[in-house]
Design a protein that fits this description.
With 369 residues, the protein is α/β, with parallel strands linked by helices. It is 38% helix and 18% strand.
């Protein structure tokens, strides 16, 4: 794996002084990719790798995928610590208190979501001289831009809205986290990403993630003749109108002969039930991130997606296969009145910067019509 932007490459080899925090299956996958990139030939005994802390969410689908990913991490020799970080009012205090000694001893801290208030709080407790940010999907693109421009850390679908009371209360911690994620002579910052990063913050090392671990451990897949459709949580985050989304899915499935719909882990049960009834698609709730599901197969020869992380990651995970990733843009008419003013430009940028995909010409206009 070659580093980008003239960086000297990944740091020294992995050791138990490395502490990683993850809150989603994709973040955990990318921590495994980062660790593998340090030494692809390593065969570590149990506990000889990094210490991986899972800050568990509450929704069942995410928890299930995280437990499966934790099994894979243990097989790679990493020590996994599961924290019920959101299990009641006192859970955050117990979690932070239990991790304080680990944070103070850590030489290197790896994180998957610098926008997370949990992660920002934990950053304020560490003196680690090496910080690494691995992908949390397309949010990484927004994080790098905000870091380069010295802006406050705000998720893309919330940018442009007024800060709420909790945002204002947490603002000092968020500002401290942004300062800590800025390189100094005594602290290095690395971004390990499969996303296109054009504006690199001064002093930050950017290393390309090409999903070498995924391709080494899984597949190649059996490829079927049909098409599969990948779901998105844009309805759940308030960006896209539910009726427009359902019509778009119905049109894509009919046009391209898709039979399966791989649900995003955050999609609501109600929406998925409606999709199944009104489109006839088989709804699949993956037990692992889609990159691993697709690599294991079977998978359709064409994968249909809206602008999302997978339009960047699937071409890498499926390199060397005959699978084609096709993207349908989001029509402006599909956006809700609650969508961020930046939503359309951000989603268009996700597609425009993707490599190795097929853009469906006029697809969004056809659906809107």
């Amino acid at each position: 794996m070659r580093p980008r932007a003239g960086s000297p490459g990944p740091g020294p080899e992995l050791d138990p002084g490395t502490l990683a925090f993850v809150e989603s299956p994709v973040q955990l996958l990318n921590v495994l990719e980062w660790a593998y990139a340090l030494d692809p030939d390593a065969r570590r005994p149990p506990g000889a790798g990094l210490t991986l802390v899972v800050l568990s969410p509450t929704d069942p689908m995410t928890r299930g995928q995280l437990r499966r990913m934790a099994e894979l991490a243990r097989e790679e020799g990493h020590d996994v610590r599961w924290e019920e970080a959101r299990g009641g009012t006192l859970a955050p205090f117990r979690t932070v208190g239990g991790l304080t000694s680990l944070l103070r001893r850590a030489r290197r801290v790896v994180m998957g979501d610098p926008f997370s208030r949990y992660v920002q709080l934990l950053l304020s407790l560490t003196k680690a001289r090496e910080l690494v940010v691995v992908d949390d999907g397309t949010a990484t693109m927004e994080f790098v831009t905000q870091l380069a421009q010295g802006e406050r850390l705000v998720r893309w679908h919330r940018k442009g809205g007024r800060p709420g009371p909790r945002d204002l209360l947490f603002a000092p911690v968020s500002s401290s986290a942004r300062r800590r994620l800025t390189p100094t002579p005594d602290r290095t910052v690395e971004i390990f990403s499969s996303m296109p990063i054009e504006e690199i913050p001064d002093g930050v090392t950017v290393t390309a993630n090409d999903f070498t671990w995924t391709r080494a451990r899984f597949g190649p897949p059996r490829v079927s003749r049909g098409a599969d459709l990948v779901g998105t949580s844009l309805v759940e985050t308030g960006v896209v109108d539910a009726d427009h989304y359902l019509e778009a899915v119905r049109t894509l499935a009919r046009t391209h002969g898709a039979t399966r719909y791989f649900a995003h882990r955050r999609e609501s049960t109600e929406k998925l039930h409606r999709l199944a009834v009104e489109t006839g698609l088989e709804i699949v709730r993956p037990d692992l991130p889609l990159e691993l599901i697709a690599r294991r197969g079977p998978i359709g020869r064409t994968i249909l997606s809206f602008p999302s992380t997978v339009v960047h990651t699937l071409p890498l995970a499926l390199a060397g296969t005959e699978v084609r990733v096709a993207v349908c843009d989001i029509d402006p008419d599909w956006l809700t009145t609650r969508a961020s003013p930046r939503a359309q430009n951000f989603l268009t940028g996700v597609t425009n910067t993707a490599r190795g995909i097929h853009r469906l010409p006029g697809a969004s206009a056809a659906v809107a019509g």
